[in-house]
Amino acid sequence: MTRSDLVTRLAERFTQLTQRDTEFAVKTILDAMSDALARGHRIEIRGFGSFSINRRPPRLGRNPRSGEQVVISEKLVPHFKPGKALREAVDAQVPAEPLS
Fold first, then answer.
1. How much helix, strand and coil, in percent to the nearest 5, is found in the chain?
2. CA dihedral sign of residues 47, 48, 52, 55
3. Tens-digit pLDDT string for the chain (100 aa)
4. Where are the domains of the chain?
5. CA gap 82, 84 in Å, rounded
6. Which end of the chain is more exposed for a tag (fewer CB within 10 A), N or C?
7. What is the pTM of this model?
8. Which CATH architecture best describes the domain 43-94?
């Protein structure tokens, strides 16, 4: 699902909101989440999951063209951990594949 798909589905579900209002609401929520993560806060949405920041320590890597070692600096990356209700809902929707 893309952002525009989300806006369309919300506008269809909540007919009192215009497409423009729905788009503004989605943008506002996503911007607030991005800002909170950028400030180092954790976001928890009960029944859905939590967003947090993980630290990737500096490490040595290799340039794939030359094979030369390069230093890769420390990074802070967003991380999503699904909640129990989301995991169970997804698991219930996916048919079990037989093991070969």
1. 40, 25, 30
2. positive
3. 999 999 999 999 999 999 999 999 999 999 999 999 999 999 999 999 999 999 999 999 999 999 999 999 999 999 999 999 999 999 887 666 665 5
4. 1-41, 43-94
5. 7
6. C
7. 0.76
8. Irregular (4.10)
Which helix (H) or strand (E) segment is 61 a member of? strand 59-62
Helix spans in 1-100 (H):
3-13, 19-38, 84-93
Residue of 81, 58, 82, 60 lying closest to 69 (CA atoms): 60
Q: What does the buried/exposed string (b/e) look like for 54-86 if buried means 16 or more CB atoms within 10 Å of the residue's CB?
A: eeeeeeeeeeeeeeeeeeeeeeeeeeeeeeeee
